[in-house]
Specification:
Distance between the termini: 19 Å
Keywords: Signal
CATH class: Mainly Beta
Largest sheet: 5 strands, mixed
InterPro entries: 6-blade_b-propeller_TolB-like (IPR011042), SMP-30/CGR1_Lactonase (IPR051262)
Protein name: SMP-30/Gluconolactonase/LRE-like region domain-containing protein
Shape: globular
CATH architecture: 6 Propeller
Strand order of the largest sheet: 2-25-24-23-22
Signal peptide: 1-23
């Protein structure tokens, strides 16, 4: 029996306060999701996601990393609030990760090109893309070793290696227009001062920490970023280690908030909850600010007859649109086995 490659689908769910979810279903942690849009024919792996809070438009960047690179069809897509495709901007062979809206512009982490870029929010297929900065190898290219104390009193020392390839992945703005960016390969957090007005922009490294590097199967360390309500804490996902971290602003130590959130990818702080895209458990997980799980929304229910996933499949992040959350269903293959093109 032949199996079709699953269609790229973006999902949505109603965004109720976590307390209401618990009150309504005290013994059920799962909530449902429903399809929002299906990506155009030939476009796959929706990864970056942002919403224009003024008109509800949705922006999606793709992470198509097929080999050979000539097969890739990376796009920045613009949808209306109700899911009508408004525009496509072609990025070809270079996959995209983070996408953010700020002051009428869309900010793009061009992972394949190691660049931070910007484009008008009402872009068309021909709108120019502005380059703001290029990410480069850090010195040293890897973060310092990580010491682990074992229960028997012994000590493990985990050392990291890197060839200096940047891995810009997640980003978040503060209220002053400064932009914070994670580097999944070099274990770093960057800051771009006055990112809404700089051109070209300057990049500063504000954190290098072994907790920002990956030591597990997924090769991505520092990933999604989010601020708490008063922006005194920066929350950071480590996708490979399945950890949610926090760092006191500015320049405080990095510490662990929560463990075992497998494939902690995109991160969003909303209404007192941290929404973590758990790509390895096919769910959006809501944590409180003490790191306790308060809700889990979505699950993988198989592949439909049309080739599309039923439910979430390797979700990479979410964005709030009014009273609902839009979720990017990355459906990214980690293995090379034939017939396992969906995760």
């Amino acid at each position: 029996m032949s199996i079709r490659l699953c269609m790229a689908v973006v999902f949505a769910f109603s965004l109720l306060p976590v307390g209401l979810l618990e009150a309504a279903q005290p013994d059920v942690m799962y909530g449902p999701v429903k399809p929002f849009v299906e990506l155009p024919e030939g476009v796959r792996n929706p990864e970056g996601l942002a919403v224009n809070p003024l008109n509800g438009e949705v922006y999606i960047g793709t992470f198509d990393v097929r080999a050979p690179a000539t097969l890739r069809n990376n796009q920045l897509l613009r949808y209306s609030a109700d899911g009508k495709l408004l525009a496509q901007r072609h990025f070809g062979q270079t996959p995209l990760t983070g996408v953010e809206f700020k002051d009428g512009q869309i900010y793009i982490l061009n992972f394949g090109g190691s660049k931070l870029q910007r484009i008008a929010a009402d872009f068309t297929s021909a709108t120019p893309v502005e380059g703001l900065l290029t990410f480069v190898a850090l010195t040293p290219p890897a973060p310092p070793p990580h010491h682990v104390a074992n229960p028997d009193g012994s000590q493990d020392l985990i050392t990291f290696d890197s060839k200096g390839m940047p891995g810009p992945n997640g980003m978040v703005f503060d209220r002053h227009g400064n932009l914070y960016i994670s580097d999944s390969f070099q274990g770093a957090i960057y800051r771009v001062d006055k990112a809404t007005s700089c051109a070209p922009c300057a990049l500063s490294t504000i954190a290098r920490d072994p907790l920002l590097a990956a030591t597990a199967t997924l090769p991505f360390g520092a990933n999604g970023l989010a601020f708490n309500a008063d922006e005194t804490l920066l929350y950071i996902n480590n996708a490979g280690d399945g950890r949610v971290l926090r760092m006191l602003m500015l320049g405080g130590p990095v510490s662990v908030l929560a463990e075992s959130v497998f494939g902690a990818d995109g991160l969003l702080f909303h209404d007192g909850s941290l929404w973590v895209a758990s790509n390895q458990s096919d769910a959006m997980v809501a944590l409180d600010e003490q790191g306790r799980v308060r809700a889990r929304v979505g699950q993988f229910l198989g592949i439909g007859a049309d080739g599309a996933p039923k439910g979430l499949l390797f979700p990479s992040g979410g964005a709030v649109q009014g009273k609902r959350m839009i979720v990017a269903n990355l459906a990214f293959p980690l293995t090379a086995a034939s017939g396992d093109e969906w995760e």
